[in-house]
Design goal:
By secondary structure, the chain is α+β, with helices and mostly antiparallel strands. The protein folds into two domains: about 170 residues, paralog of FGE (formylglycine-generating enzyme) (Alpha-Beta Complex), CATH 3.90.1580.10; about 200 residues, no CATH class. It contains ten helices and twelve strands. It has a four-stranded antiparallel β-sheet with strand order 1-4-12-7. A four-stranded mixed β-sheet has the order 10-9-8-11. The chain has a two-stranded antiparallel sheet with strand order 2-3. It is globular and about 75 Å long. Keywords: Lipoprotein. It comes from Flavivirga algicola. It holds the Pfam family FGE-sulfatase.
Length: about 450
């Protein structure tokens, strides 16, 4: 018995000697975290503000009565998402689908990288020589093709795609690429164009609100999947304005480099959400390749309260992002891109949209929080929502309510809709030539507040 007790004592001493905590409660120490400001974003410090309309706005006060609310710190895009930035999303989706189709056909015809041609685009696991144990166990890929039977196979991103028809490597490659274009009978003037209906993005997410309300619900029942066509609806330039010649905007606005730095339009609320999901996936894919890098918080659309708080730029009770109540500076220059002077669209030096970094930014260094394009936010429109929402991080987004809030006014709106407190809505599946969006990301921690009491 004495020997047994002695043995336990020795084991206890050895265990204590091998531990760095010396038997004390020191907590689990994770790897050091260094906050990184996302590219093109500004940190908006958390704080309280008076949200809503002033009492003298008898029309607006009915659905936006003034109330004091508090929001946590977050990052927000300096500008509206531009055509160039959205094209990166569209091209990523297109290229991923092409690569998946190439890999599937290479597998079906038995081609591997050493065979050249389409074999160079074969699934990564076609050659396992340079794969880690983990890579052999679990692959990640993306496909916008729906169920294919090839889920879990890793597509090859290391080989550049070939878009010049004169340089297609073989007939199999030609066969795949041909499926991505409109058929000959739908082409004209000798030009074949991409079949943009095939540019579909698939993503999954968890309905955390539903999971919290129903504790007994199974995880799989709150995991939702979406499939979204990502190409903007360029016909909005025609449909939004009857008896108006806007064909040049329809033809060139989204894809031409002349408009690369202009805000993207013609995107639905659903497409804007899909962009946010893609941006998160894209950044985290890069993070996985960096040793010791942490995954980033998801990008998302701002809540209505976050948008208004950011638009005010720290100014309490201001009418516009620059203060107010006037839309002109002391030098007689318009402060934003909107519809002034009874329809003289060019009076503010812009006929349609302007480049995303135009006019002066507000005090949070955010551009065009009023005018240029209205912006989707992650909120459903309810005229009485201000009456029942929480006063801390208020948010109302009912999946069954398809009326989604847009804020900020646009190039075709009168000054009233540019006011930081003005509310408007559009249906989630609708696209307009005057609605775009910008994204936000949660800030980790609670130290950054604008109006905290410091002693």
């Amino acid at each position: 018995m004495k020997k047994f007790i002695l043995l336990i004592a020795v084991i206890t001493i050895l265990a204590s000697c091998g531990s760095k905590d010396r038997g004390e409660l020191v907590g689990v120490q994770g790897k050091k975290w260094h906050p990184e400001k996302p590219y093109g974003m500004q940190l908006i410090p958390g704080g309280a503000f008076i949200m809503g309309k002033a009492d003298d706005d008898l029309a607006g006060v009915h659905d936006a009565p003034a109330k004091t609310v508090t929001v946590r710190a977050f990052y927000m895009d300096e500008t509206e998402i531009t055509n160039s930035e959205y094209r990166q999303f569209v091209q990523w989706v297109r290229d991923s689908i092409v690569r998946m189709k190439l890999a599937i056909l290479a597998d079906e015809v038995g081609k591997v990288p050493d065979d050249g041609g389409i074999g160079e685009y074969a699934f990564k696991d076609a050659d396992t020589a340079n794969m880690s144990v983990y890579e052999k166990y679990m692959f990640e890929n993306y496909t916008g093709l729906g169920p294919t039977g090839y889920e879990g196979r890793r597509i090859n991103h290391d080989v550049d795609l070939v878009f010049d028809t004169a340089e297609y490597p073989d007939e199999y490659y030609t066969e795949v690429m041909d499926t991505m274009y409109l058929p000959i009978e739908e082409s004209y003037n000798g030009q074949r164009t991409w079949d943009v209906k095939k540019f579909k993005f698939q993503y999954s997410y968890m309905d955390i609100q539903e999971a919290a309300r129903n504790r007994g619900v199974k995880r799989k029942d709150v995991l939702l999947k979406e499939e979204i066509e990502v190409y903007p609806d360029t016909t909005v330039w025609i449909r939004d304005f009857a008896y108006s010649y806007n064909e040049p905007m329809h033809n060139d606005y989204f894809w031409h480099d002349a408009y690369s730095d202009y805000p993207v339009v013609g995107v639905t609320w659903m497409q804007a959400k899909a962009f946010c999901e893609w941006r998160t996936i894209n950044k985290n894919s890069y993070q996985k390749g960096k040793k010791g890098a942490s995954m980033v918080n998801r990008f998302r659309l701002p809540s209505e309260a976050e948008w208004e708080y950011a638009a005010r730029g720290g100014l309490q009770a201001a009418t516009y992002p620059w203060g107010g109540p006037y839309t002109k500076s002391d030098r007689g220059c318009f402060m934003a891109n909107f519809k002034p002077v009874r329809g003289d669209y060019a009076a503010d030096q812009a006929l349609y949209t302007v480049e995303a970094k135009s006019y002066e930014p507000n005090d949070y260094n955010l551009y065009n929080m009023a005018g240029n394009v209205s912006e989707w936010v992650n909120a459903s429109y309810d005229p009485s929502s201000y009456a029942y929402t929480s006063t801390i991080n208020p948010s109302v987004n009912d999946r069954d309510n398809k009326r989604k809030i847009v804020r900020g006014g646009s190039w075709k709106d009168v000054a009233y809709f540019l006011q930081v407190s003005s509310r408007d809505y559009e249906y989630a599946d609708s696209a307009r030539s005057y609605i775009g969006f910008r994204t936000v990301q949660d800030y980790m921690g609670t130290k950054v507040t604008k109006n905290s009491n410091k002693k």
